[in-house]
Design goal:
single chain
């Protein structure tokens, strides 16, 4: 089928996407900070999505291993911490935006650079949330909502570029 990078691939939506892509015949690079060790031959890469150097290193390894660019990206990595806004400290806010918003930008940029450099193009899918459209009194998370709003805005901008 092709080659796909999936972030957040150790659990949840990311793991389900990676498993399905693999079952459908895709070569899959699974990225997550929760993997116990880095073993590119197994298609698993430990990475901190919010850190530029970590992203650069892992995408250089993926590009080298595959001998080219991925055909697709599904960016499912994210954190969701439920707490009222008055209980959110600056460190929690920063950590959430670092993974969800900054990480989305860093990963999308890295994949796009590989695709443009190879002249191949491809598809980028960045997961956002309905939390960008409405508040939630039962599971309040201002940092999550703001970060996913940033992802939605980022996707619109990337689409026109």
């Amino acid at each position: 089928m092709g080659r796909i990078v999936v972030t957040g691939a150790a659990s949840g939506i990311g793991a389900a996407v990676a498993d399905r892509a693999e079952a459908d015949g895709w070569d899959v690079a699974r990225l997550d900070r929760e993997f116990a060790d880095i073993d590119g031959r197994q298609g698993r890469y430990r990475v901190d999505i919010g850190e530029s150097d970590s992203i650069s290193t892992v995408f250089a390894a993926i590009g080298s291993q595959w001998g080219g660019a991925p055909d697709a990206l599904v960016h499912a990595a994210g954190i969701y911490r439920v707490r009222p806004s008055t209980d959110v400290d600056a460190a929690t806010w920063d950590a959430t935006l670092s993974i969800n918003a900054r990480g989305s930008f860093l990963v999308a940029r890295a994949v796009a650079e590989l695709m443009i450099g190879a002249g191949t193009g491809g598809s980028l899918v960045l997961l956002s949330s309905v939390a960008t459209l409405r508040g939630d009194a039962f599971e309040p998370s201002a940092a999550y909502s703001a970060s996913k709003g940033a992802v939605s805005a980022l996707v619109r901008q990337l689409a026109v570029e």
